[in-house]
Amino acid sequence: TQSYPFILATIRIFKSPVLTEKRVVAMLSVLTTLVLIVTIFSGFMYVKQPGMIFFPTKELSDSPGNWGMQYEDVVLHTADGIQLHGWFIAKQNAKKTLLFFHGNAGNISHRGQSIEIFYNLGLNVFIIDYRGYGQSKGEPSENGLYEDARTAWNYLTETKGVSKDNIILFGRSLGGVVAAKLGSEVNTDSVILESTFSSARDMASELFPLLSHIILLRFKFDTQGYVKQIMDPVLVIHSPEDEIIPYSLGRKVFDAANQPKQLLEIQGDHNSGFLQSQPQYRKKIDEFLSRDQFRPSS
Questions:
Q1: Across 12-131, where does the E strand assignment appear?
Q2: Which among 141, 173, 190, 277 is annotated as catalytic?
Q3: Which candidate in 148, 222, 232, 242 is catalytic?
Q4: 298 given a catalytic annotation
Q5: pLDDT tens string 93-105
């Protein structure tokens, strides 16, 4: 509303039949003020964007031991010198390991219900906290999250000796971008992207239709671009009832994915749709991981 007087003044100047020198100066003054307001606002929003995206919690409120699962505390060090923390949860006689990338809030201790589903599907689960989350050091950033994912991958393939063909990448919400980025760089068993968005620009357009065109975005989070580079089987999961990340953005991710791919529509909201969609959710993931047509031919 503060800009309305400037806009009205500009309209009056343009409607004048004669642009005198005084009017030209007035017009330039109005336009300069508008540009200054937009620049200051855009700069403010640029600085504030990390706080609008990352909501880490430092304290761990639970552990796999409380969920009846044996696990290893894992400490990793990234190539840029950040110490990360994670849990490797081993399932007896498991052949495959799921590498879990969580969303933008909380930490690994808040993912027990999801971990239990994959554990009961007969999978080992390796979950890490991104830098700045839980017991991991540092501050979160887009490139930092991607580096954290590479570090987790290297731990599984090099330290644990897990074959890349036996690793499933799973990402929910913001974690879907992280999983897609890693999946674009490595060959793996398959990639599961749940309740994620196509890009930061698309998400901004949904949240701020007008402002998104004048704000300089600090992040790309180009899931749609990354998924185009994935050659392994992809399962995209999304609820049409998702109130945080619109289903249409999840659909864009699926449309961009290469074959073989599957789309699983679930019910419920963003944070608990996977629970509200049981037992179909668990069943469909099990089918996706076990059916031969979702294995690339050698």
A1: 55-56, 71-77, 83-89, 97-101, 105-106, 124-129
A2: 173
A3: 242
A4: no
A5: 999 999 999 999 9
